[in-house]
Amino acid sequence: MKNSLKEKAHKTKSRIHSFRSLRTVYTLLVLLILVSAGFITASVYIILYTLDFIPSAALTPLILPVIMLFSCMIIGTILALFVGKLFIDPLRQLIAANEEIRHGNFKVRMSEHTIIGELNNLMNSFNSMADELEATELFRNDFINSFSHEFKTPIVSIRGFARQLQKDNDLHLLSDEQRKEYTDIIAYESDRLARLSSNILMLTKFENQQIVTDKTEFYLDEQIRRIVLLLEKQWTAAEVEIELDLDEIKYSFNEEMLSQMWLNLIGNAIKFSGKGGKVTVSCKKKKDFIYVEIGDNGEGISKESLHKIFEKFYQCDTSHKSNGNGLGLAIVKRIAELANAEITVKSEAGAGTTFYVNLPTIET
Ligand code: ADP
Question: Residue 292: CB within 6 Å of ligand 1?
Answer without folding.
Answer: no
